Amino acid sequence: MKWKNYLIMFIMLFVFWLLLNNSLEKEIVLLGFGISLVLPFLLCGKCEVFTNLSLSPKAILYSFLFLFTFLIALVKANFDVARRVLSPSLPINPGIVEVKTKLKSKIGRVILADSITLTPGTFTLEIIDDSIFVHWIDVQSTDIQENTKLIVSQFEKYLEVMYG
Amino acid sequence: MVNILIIIAISITLLSIAVSMLRFILGPSPVDRVIAFDVMSVSSIALIAFISVVSKRVIYMDVALVYGILGFLGVIVVARYLEKGM
Amino acid sequence: MDTNILEIIGGSIAIAGSIFLLLGSIGLYRMPDAYNRIQAGTKASTLGTILSLLGLFFIFPSWFGKFMVLILFVLITNPVSSHVLARAAYHIMVPLTKLTQVDKWKERREIDESRKAHLRKVKIQKEGE
Fold this sequence. Notes:
Chain A is mostly helical. Chain A has helices spanning about 1-20, 25-45, 55-85, 105-115, 145-164; strands at about 95-100, 120-130, 130-135. At the B-C interface, helix 1, helix 2 and helix 3 of B face helix 1, helix 2 and helix 3 of C.
């Protein structure tokens, strides 16, 4: 299982090097390849971050779908903020609500929390066990199940396949 | 032509940094000031990118990246300090 | 001619991004408490910066790598810093605005505190015996 962590770490470092250098000359590519081959072994005492990441074709398809959903939600969030900011009466109705997540892995929860932060009107305050505390700019209900359905489930169905 | 568009964008970004600066000065709690700093540093990334396109030097993009990393670290450090002390 | 049209499209996208940045800072100015300011500030500044960089990518397509690194960086770090700030604000008890409807986290924390106090009491009683 450890080799998957090394492989993903290597790919990430190598892609980051290529993007940062922004060129495909032979020396640069070879140097980056060598450095990013060695670096995971020096830095990763115990890399367990990506152990739960699934690499099946379905998971890869779902990660693209997730990205798509996320970008649409991000644009919607911004128009929502713009509408609230520009209207003279400032229509806000804020509150802190609790939602539940089914995800087990740490990285899955981190990505879920980040996506909640960038979607319309909500952002994550704290994760305790399996409950996420969300600050909501326009509270519609205080029921946990209903809020989970409204806020979390649109991302959770993709992240469940990707990270389990 | 394109330079005019970019210069308009630069002036709008500068205006937004000025408005954030207002919150930075007014902000009643330290957290408000740190939020204003965060928004200013993220806007500055866009500003440095605009400047690098106007002056056609790719090296300024690296400056933007380093500026972003330092701003992010600063926010994290101040937030940790507010939450738990040194 | 083609590149010229691309450049104008890119410039317009960059202007749209900077308008989002401006909206974000107006929100930062108008919102009543720290949490709502985080909402407005973070969201608008994320999309504003991403749109600006995307527009600049249309003008200089050969700088693809640099723009991509910056977009990924903003997309990953901005939610993290807003979350850390909000947690710090809650811990040092920055007051919520009067418009606030519910505060589930406070209820949860009160339950936890009372449970801890109860356990402490039980422990002291046992040691006393």
